[in-house]
Design goal:
The complex is a heterodimer of chains A (about 600) and B (about 325). Chain A is about 25% helix and about 20% strand. Chain A has 17 helices and 21 strands. In chain A, the strands form five sheets. In chain A, strands 1, 7, 8, 9, 10, 11, 12, 16, 17, 18 and 19 form an eleven-stranded mixed sheet that branches. In chain A, helix 8 packs parallel to helix 9, helix 11 runs antiparallel to helix 13 and helix 16 runs antiparallel to helix 17. Chain A is globular, with a radius of gyration of 25 Å. Chain B has about 325 residues and is mostly helical. The chains are: A alpha+beta (about 600), B mainly alpha (about 325). Chains A and B meet through helix 6, strand 9 and helix 8 of A and helix 2, helix 3, helix 7 and helix 12 of B.
């Protein structure tokens, strides 16, 4: 999809001949996440929609207890130390960012009075400044007013490397200035098209200066408020036992009228996903369970009880296969899969094309993931405006056989194809996880029919995803021919996500395999488009550039996307909840209610 | 006695040091990384990840890290958890009461079943009662707790809807309701653990009693005209208890250590579940803390068992 096409679609939305939703879906098809799609619409003066939950209760309180079950237990409550989603969910109950993302990728103001835009003067023309107006009258849980000082402090806190905050990435290259008590200005060094990172969503939660002021930098761990959060959120902190139970009570001074409905909140942790689903869907002991990476069949069976329902929202997480274009079996300068080598057979685009035809994505979705994923051919699927419409997937063994025949790969006596003595035999690696092993088996079977032999290898997740330099089985080492895993797209903008397709991010021995480009493939055109996208302020042009980067890798069949994963949660039938794949499940907790 | 005690305590020091060194080395060499979650997150730049690793001292050689840990430990500083950034001793202390309650009660339940059943079965060997008890004991310890646990959940929670299967350490209720709620949530895990333990104890008690019951002094006691009850309780049981006491004493560390599998199934916030989540998160200081407490308890209860021998059987001396 190019710039013209996107512009045409935007015009259609403006005229009303195309719905917002279908625009967003079309964009997802070319690998553009929903938030970016909606950003494009805003840039072109189509008002932002509000996909958040409609809040029906007419008064705050009176809803009784809300009981949530996280099968991975939260272990800390400082949002800037939160390493995993579980901690981010827990801290978001008490702390809020200036704005959060709804499930369609719209930016919804939380502590901000409004979302900055060109129209309201929040975004400067050169793309270097963003001015946030803060919501007046917001109070911290201890009664002190929330002001611009807290926002500026949060930046100082997270940007300080000695604090060891996990959110540093969003803050270290910006400057934040207080304009007045209710206005702050974020200044970027360079024109930054995607400005909604600092103070937004997961990384953006604002800390109270009067509680954390003394604990900036090396003393960050000692702050008592790390475990006794004082925030602005809908619930006030009562008690926390790390790895077990978190309790809270209604914040009577919450800054949104008539919210929240529940009087108390309980977040229980521990156990496993299946029994968490059971505690909601079958026994009804809990109101809500999160991140149910459970086979869909199991969930469907539990749902038949009629107590609860499962909901799935799209996210940017993608399950994909990498075909290694470098040689994993030859060591050069102390590393295998070195960019200096070429894979004997996988460097042949025809072979890669054939393998892509041998992946039965529809079956993988239908029989393994169910509602947990949507089959896709594009690496970026959400927000929709970034999804490539050019990329299509197909499962066709005959066509694959023909391509291989034409390319001169002949079947040997053992049924395995070879050319010039090089056999199409590959090691296919992934982490240990039941759906992944099943997917491996489906692909192996199809490949066998085309004369390609796959040896399946699975590695424990803790090893596979570690950055252990000494271990040959980590995913960034790629000491195999094929590899499959999910990468998460933590914020809606795919720019940072797509840095795994640029040449300067290639994982090598030199950078201790910390580079983000695991496939080791590079294309000057992709590099160029990526660099141009980093500076491009017009979201339409930018989306077109990022789509190009995505398409280059997928068309080269280096990256074979399988499924766009969804976030699956279970809730009791009477609970109206609102979770988003672009933010944590509790991002809009204040608006949850029981009917 | 006193010299024996001192000697044993002195021997314990090098063995604990050895245990801690081995534990530490194995943990340090084990694959995995406490910050693996960051690795797939493009939001955390590699240099930030490296800085965090360095600030937690993860890049130093193993021996340096061990000596640092040992030095801190000697001063009573257990270190802090990488996952929650809380002191390890606080984390462990938070979990102790729940574990003591659940596992302790299940041990008492196990003994309350095993002692009478074992003794009664041994006094009437090969009777119907003995055969049934034996069969049940065999079935009981052949069924692993994760199986019986899930079975109980399916029957009593999902189908019958009698008990909750998610355990809450602090129940928001007072007075009788509190006891009732506590009973309702604790009964399944306690029964699962207790029955499993009771099965193995029963077999043990039975064979220990059988060994003693045929001895001459028992016949003598009967010949004196003592009634059967006195013979069984005063003469047989006391002597038969020596091996049972050892077994129970050696089980005590497990009472503190919790029951890893059962705690996981019922979401009991005990030490076992702390250990397992720490292992999964590669949270080395917590794993070190918990396993070290275990080893201290094992050493301590071995000593206690040895001392109890002397009290139960005056023929054993500590010369």
């Amino acid at each position: 999809m190019n710039e013209q096409e996107i512009r045409g679609m935007v015009a259609d939305v403006k005229e009303g001949t195309m719905s917002r939703r279908s625009f967003i879906q079309r964009m997802a098809a070319v690998g553009i996440a929903a938030p970016i799609a909606s950003q494009i619409l805003v840039w072109n003066d189509v008002a932002m929609a509000d996909a958040t939950l409609e809040y029906k209760p007419t008064k705050a309180g009176g809803g009784g207890p809300l009981k949530m079950l996280l099968w991975q237990a939260p272990t800390l409550l400082n949002p800037h130390f939160a390493s995993g989603t579980k901690d981010q969910i827990a801290s978001r109950i008490f702390f809020e960012p200036l704005a959060g993302w709804d499930k369609e990728g719209n930016l919804i103001p939380q502590l901000a009075a409004e979302v900055p835009s060109k129209a309201n003067g929040g975004l400067s023309a050169d793309g270097k400044e963003v001015t946030w107006k803060l919501k007046p009258g917001v109070k911290w849980h201890d009664g002190k007013p929330f002001t611009a000082d807290d926002v500026v402090f949060t930046w100082e806190y997270a940007a300080d490397p000695a604090t060891a905050a996990y959110t540093t990435g969003a803050y270290k290259d910006i400057k934040v200035e207080k304009v007045n008590d209710l206005t702050v200005k974020v200044i970027f060094k360079e024109a930054t098209p995607f400005w909604a990172d600092a103070f937004v969503g997961v990384t953006g939660q604002i800390l109270p200066k009067h509680h954390f002021g003394e604990y900036k930098g090396a003393k960050s761990r000692e702050a008592p408020a790390n475990l006794k959060p004082v925030g602005t959120g809908p619930y006030k902190f009562t008690d926390f036992k790390p790895g077990d139970l978190l309790t809270g009570v209604r914040n009577e001074d919450y800054h949104v009228k008539n919210q929240p409905q529940f009087d108390t909140l309980e977040v229980k942790g521990g156990g496993d996903a299946v029994s968490a689903a059971r505690a909601v869907l079958q026994t009804g002991e809990y109101d809500y369970a999160w991140n149910l990476q459970v086979e869909d069949d199991v969930l469907k069976r539990m749902e038949t009880g009629g107590r609860g329902k499962v909901s799935a929202v799209p996210s940017g997480d993608i399950e994909f296969i990498i075909l290694n274009p470098t040689d994993p079996w030859t060591e050069v300068d102390g590393e295998r899969s070195s960019v200096k080598t070429k894979h004997p057979t996988l460097s042949d685009p025809k072979v890669r094309e054939a393998i892509n035809l041998l992946i039965d994505r529809d079956s993988v979705q239908k029989f393994i993931y169910g509602r947990g994923g949507t089959a896709t051919a594009s690496f970026v699927n959400e927000p929709k405006q970034f999804k490539s419409t050019k990329l299509k997937y197909e499962f066709n063994i005959d066509k694959a056989n023909k391509i291989l025949d034409d390319a001169g790969y002949k079947k040997g006596a053992d049924g395995i194809r070879e050319k010039d003595g090089k056999k199409l035999k590959y090691v296919y690696q992934t982490s240990i996880n039941a759906p992944r092993q099943k997917t491996q088996a489906i692909i192996k079977q199809a490949c066998q029919k085309a004369g390609i032999d796959l040896e399946l290898k699975s590695v424990t997740a803790t090893v596979f995803f570690s950055s252990d330099v000494a271990n040959p089985d980590t995913y960034t080492k790629l000491y195999v021919d094929m590899e499959m895993y999910t990468t998460t797209q933590p914020q809606p903008d795919p720019e940072r996500f797509l840095n795994q397709f640029v040449s300067w991010e290639i994982a090598t021995k030199e950078n201790k395999w910390l580079g983000r480009n695991v496939s080791r493939y590079s294309d000057p055109a992709a590099d160029e488009a990526y660099k141009a996208a980093q500076k491009e302020l017009d979201p339409v042009k930018r989306a077109a550039l990022l789509i190009k980067v995505n398409e280059i890798f997928c068309e080269a069949n280096i990256i074979l996307p399988l499924l766009s994963r969804t976030r699956v949660a279970a809730a009791l039938n009477n609970l109206s909840h609102d979770h988003s794949g672009w933010d944590v499940d509790t991002w809009n907790l204040a608006a949850w209610y029981r009917s | 006695m006193a010299t024996y005690l001192i000697r044993r305590l002195l021997i314990a020091i090098p063995s604990l040091l050895g245990i801690s060194l081995i534990l530490f080395t194995v943990l340090a060499m084990a694959p995995g990384d406490p910050f693996s979650e960051m690795a797939t997150n493009p939001n955390v730049p590699p240099e930030v990840r490296e800085a965090i690793r360095a600030s937690f001292g993860l890049n130093d050689p193993i021996l340096v890290r061990y000596l640092r840990w040992l030095g801190a430990m000697a001063q009573g500083n257990w270190g802090f958890s990488f996952a929650s950034r809380i002191d390890v001793d606080d984390l462990i202390l938070q979990r102790v009461p729940t574990t003591l309650f659940v596992v302790g009660t299940s041990q008492i339940l196990a003994l309350c079943i095993a002692l009478p059943v074992g003794i009664y079965a041994a006094t009437r060997p090969y009777s119907i009662f003995d055969q049934i008890a034996n069969t049940l004991a065999f079935v009981g310890f052949s069924l692993p707790t994760f199986f019986t646990g899930l079975l109980f959940i399916l029957i009593f929670s999902v189908t019958l809807d009698w008990f909750p299967f998610v355990y809450r350490a602090d129940i928001a209720a007072t007075g009788w309701r509190w006891y009732w709620e506590m009973f309702r949530q604790a009964i399944m895990p306690i029964t699962v653990l207790g029955l499993f333990q009771a099965a193995s104890y029963t077999r043990y008690v039975r064979s220990a009693v059988l060994d003693v019951i045929r001895l001459d002094y028992v016949t003598t006691a009967r010949a004196k005209g003592l009634n059967e009850r006195t013979v069984t309780l005063r003469h047989i049981t006391r002597n038969a208890l020596i091996p049972v006491v050892t077994l129970v004493a050696l089980q005590m560390p497990a009472v503190f250590g919790g029951a890893i599998v059962t705690e996981q199934i019922f979401r009991i916030p005990g030490i076992g579940s702390l250990l397992i989540s720490a292992i999964l998160a590669n949270d080395t200081p917590v794993i070190m803390g918990v396993t070290f407490v275990f080893s201290c308890l094992v050493v301590l209860f071995n000593l206690i068992a040895d001392l109890l021998y002397g009290w139960l059987d005056p023929r054993i001396s500590f010369g």
